[in-house]
Amino acid sequence: SFYLNPDFSAIHLGKGICFFRSREYEKARNEFQKAIEISSDFEPMRVNIGILNLEKGNNKEAERIFLELIT
Predict the structure, then answer these.
(1) How many angstroms separate the CA atoms of 62 and 58, rounded?
(2) What is the three-class DSSP state of 22?
(3) What is the DSSP string of 29-65?
(4) Which of 16, 38, 60, 65 is deepest in the core (most CB within 10 A)?
(5) How confident is the model at residue 57 (pLDDT cuts 50, 70, 90)?
(6) Which whole number is the average pLDDT over 22-49?
(7) Under 8 Å CB-to-CB from 56, ≥6 apart: which residues?
(8) What distance in Å separates the CA atoms of residue 36 and residue 7, rounded to the nearest whole number?
(9) Element (H, E) at 17
């Protein structure tokens, strides 16, 4: 069952979103990174890291991530 598997990328996505919403950005980034490590082609994580960078004012990094996603 994926509920018991800590290596299921969607679990890290959910945790990352929860941390993001509570403004715990570093914890959110860590969860998104874990999900990318598990499923490197899981694009929602990269989108969330881009949004996280925008929220923190790292516009250049956000732009780089978004451009990678569309090219």
Answers:
(1) 6
(2) coil
(3) HHHHHHHHHH-TT-HHHHHHHHHHHHHTT-HHHHHHH
(4) 16
(5) very high
(6) 88
(7) 25
(8) 11
(9) helix 9-21
Report CA-CA distances (Å) from 52 to 3, 4, 13, 19, 65.
26, 27, 13, 11, 11
Query: Considering the entire predicted model, what is its pTM?
Result: 0.76
Q: Which stretch of 22-26, 36-40, 51-55 has the lowest confidence by average pLDDT? A: 36-40
Q: Which residue type is seen at 18?
A: C
User: What's at 11, amino acid-wise?
Assistant: I
Candidates 33, 25, 21; CA nearest to 12 is 33
**Burial class of 22 by CB neighbour count within 10 A (0 to 12, 13 to 18, 19+):** exposed
- 43, 24 in Cβ contact below 8 A? no
